[in-house]
Design brief:
alpha/beta; 8 strands; 8-stranded mixed sheet; Rossmann fold
């Protein structure tokens, strides 16, 4: 497999360090940024036309929030939160909605079930079901199904990339390439190193899950436009993963760009989506415009 060599020779101690995003900022900084996700999301709920807890899957209780909906179909950003697949929620996921609404773009913020309560494949399935639901109910949600752009932060970056993997779409009655643009930010693309360090405590990944749900092992075909983004001050493992995935998809013929946001860390980089003048926001707006 293309990703067999990624971090394969590294010790457990090095992997624990290289995939410890929390260690790249102080406790106070981390707590301030996470509160900013929530407080700015609350502000967005007041500022935007807002549909809360749109039902998705009755058997799981999953819902999603929709910001900026109108009667005219608009492009949409599907924002998938991070939290190492075990934390956060859609209540931390709407902070960019006012900026996007100002450019005529709907924001969709879904929930997904979290580890260790469910297996990893169920988390991936939740996001694929969410995308399929949004695609099939586009008219009801006020969006243009041809212009749904998944964006994800950290673990959410992995889940955004999982929507670009081939082979799952037919199960949900989708076309082979329903995603035409995507932006994984600070993402993870090969689960093998993750299974060898501390996140394995709550993920419990097995060999089949590592193989099936590592986007680096199932590359998208040419067609989608992709921006892979990082903060300047990321943990080394996240840097290696984003570079490896970017290089692999470019080699596979995908139109892709890799950007590094100066002065930002793993947690605050995604808040740049609140500012239409920022490099990250401009890259996302260009992606949406090009769908």
């Amino acid at each position: 497999m293309v990703s067999d060599a990624l971090d394969a020779t590294f010790s457990r101690d090095r992997l624990d360090t290289d995939y410890d995003a929390r260690a790249t900022v102080t406790v106070e900084t981390f707590e301030t940024i996470i509160e900013a996700y929530a407080s700015r999301t609350r502000e967005a709920k007041r500022a935007c036309l807002f549909v809360e807890d749109h039902p998705l899957e009755p058997d799981t209780g999953l819902t999603l929030d929709v910001y900026g909906r109108t009667d005219t179909p608009r492009p949409a950003v599907l924002f998938i939160h991070g939290g190492y697949w075990r934390a956060l929620s859609k209540d931390h996921s709407g902070f960019m909605a006012p900026m996007l609404a100002g450019h005529g773009i709907v924001t969709i913020a879904p929930d997904y079930r979290l580890a260790p309560d469910v297996r990893f494949g169920e988390i991936v399935a939740d996001i694929r079901k969410t995308f399929a639901h949004v695609w099939h109910h586009a008219a009801e949600l006020g969006i243009d199904r041809r212009r749904i752009v998944p964006v994800g932060s950290s673990a959410g970056g992995h889940l955004a990339a999982s929507l670009l993997q081939p082979g799952w779409q037919a199960e949900y009655d989708l076309p082979p390439v329903p995603v035409h643009a995507a932006m994984p930010v600070s993402g993870l693309f090969d689960l093998a190193p993750i299974a060898r360090c501390h996140p394995q405590q709550w993920l419990g990944l097995n060999d089949a899950e590592i193989e099936d749900f590592s986007p680096l092992r199932h590359l998208p075909s040419p067609g989608p436009r992709i921006v892979t983004a990082l903060g300047e001050h990321e943990a080394p493992g996240f840097v290696r993963q984003s570079r490896a995935w970017h290089e692999a998809i470019v080699e596979n013929g995908v139109h892709a760009e890799h950007i590094v946001i100066a002065g930002r860390n793993h947690f605050d980089v995604i808040l740049d989506l609140c500012d239409t003048r920022s490099k990250l926001a401009r890259a996302l707006l260009d992606l949406v415009a090009g769908c």
